[in-house]
Amino acid sequence: MPTILAIESSCDETSAAVCTDGKVLSNFIATQAVHEQYGGVVPELASRAHMQHIVPVVEKALKEAGTALAGVDAIAFTQSPGLIGSLLVGGQFAKSLALSLHKPLIAVHHMQAHVLANLIEDPKPAFPFLCLTVSGGHTQIVLCESPVQMRVIGETIDDAAGEAFDKSAKLLGLPYPGGPLIDKYAKEGNPHRFSFPEPQLAGLNFSFSGLKTSILYFLQNAGKSNLYKEEFAATEEEKNKFIEENLADICASVQHRIITILLNKVKKAAQETGIRDICLAGGVSANSGLRSAFTEMGKKQGWNTFIPAFQYCTDNAGMIAITGYYKFLEGKTVPLSVTSNARAEW
Ligand code: KG4
Ligand code: ZN
């Protein structure tokens, strides 16, 4: 019955979790509000906030799980990828704990952990399964053969899905992060009112940069066209009036296009691999339109679909704990000389 204490600090969330025998007993997350005023995560401020939060967050996770430090069998931490200053705070803290407790250290890949969040609660997918991981920094289709064996079979060649949401929201004058706001306004809108192009990209890779450009022109033209045409150019006032009067329909139409770009590739991946257990992961899987379209497509295609509970979709240490647990069972520990990496191979 190994007990794993896990630490996540790859971006702007300081999180700690305890998992015993594959069950997550606590998952405490401290969100850093400091970035809101800057319209994005400021790396230097994120590192400093991790320094402030890490001790109380770990204490809270242990307390909630009813576990003492002496009862921990291994320390897992997010080694890569992420903001290097943020990763170093969690990594160094994890190493210090492992050293003082004389316990093994487990290095976890953040994107693999997003995939394995699907193993936290029942029902669980059967191996091999596919996972569409959609976050602010990544968009990937992962083929997962076992908890310690997975590979990326499709990914974005430019923006991530979360960026596509956030950048579209910014063009609409909405504050950061705009993804949840697009979701909110889209609920009241008509997803077929405006049409945005789907990129014609062969294979399983994604592209969102064309969508961003077409939204930019669409708004500059106050909805008359989504191509660059000087004769359609609207004044700032006309543009803002158009956005104000059509916000719900614009959000619904943009969201609809992002979702079809994502799900058409998942369908293709399922057809090519013959795999029928399909999962969602990452912060964008909080999107209500994506969740329902994914479940709907699963019903039509005869898939078993899985979406982690919300607290395990966004950045969290629960997913690091479950990944650490499976790595621990396989004896995959690392020496205390290990370093953190901003970028990392799988
Ligand atoms: O996985 P995540 O919490 O952080 C990382 O990027 O690792 O994902 C954050 C992204 C942001 O781009 C945010 O706008 C997006 O997820 N997001 C959403 C929704 N909730 C979060 N996008 C669309 N609809 C939502 N409901
Ligand atoms: Zn993430």
Strands, helices and their partners?
Elements: E1 3-8, E2 13-20, E3 23-31, H1 43-65, E4 74-80, H2 84-101, E5 105-109, H3 110-116, E6 129-134, E7 139-146, E8 149-155, H4 161-171, H5 179-186, H6 209-220, H7 236-273, E9 277-281, H8 288-301, E10 304-306, H9 310-313, H10 318-329
Parallel strand pairs: 1-4, 4-5, 6-9, 9-10
Antiparallel strand pairs: 1-2, 2-3, 6-7, 7-8
The structure holds 5'-O-[(R)-(carboxyoxy)(hydroxy)phosphoryl]adenosine and zinc ion (ZN).
Short description:
With 346 residues, the protein is an alpha/beta fold. The chain is built from 10 helices and 10 strands. It folds into 2 domains: 3-118 and 311-329, 2-Layer Sandwich (Nucleotidyltransferase, domain 5), CATH 3.30.420; 125-307, 2-Layer Sandwich (Nucleotidyltransferase, domain 5).
Q: Any overview of this molecule?
A:
Helix 3 (110-116) packs across helix 10 (318-329), helix 5 packs across helix 7 (236-273) and helix 7 runs parallel beside helix 8. The two termini are 28 Å apart. The chain has a 5-stranded mixed sheet with strand order 3-2-1-4-5, with helices on both faces. A 5-stranded mixed sheet has the order 8-7-6-9-10, with helices on both faces. The protein has 346 residues and is an alpha/beta fold. The chain has helices spanning 43-65, 84-101, 110-116, 161-171, 179-186, 209-220, 236-273, 288-301, 310-313, 318-329, and strands spanning 3-8, 13-20, 23-31, 74-80, 105-109, 129-134, 139-146, 149-155, 277-281, 304-306. It has 2 domains: 3-118 and 311-329, 2-Layer Sandwich (Nucleotidyltransferase, domain 5); 125-307, Nucleotidyltransferase, domain 5, CATH 3.30.420. It binds 5'-O-[(R)-(carboxyoxy)(hydroxy)phosphoryl]adenosine (KG4) and zinc ion. 5'-O-[(R)-(carboxyoxy)(hydroxy)phosphoryl]adenosine is lined by residues 11, 135-137, 162, 165-166, 177, 179-180, 183, 282-284, 286-287, 314-315.
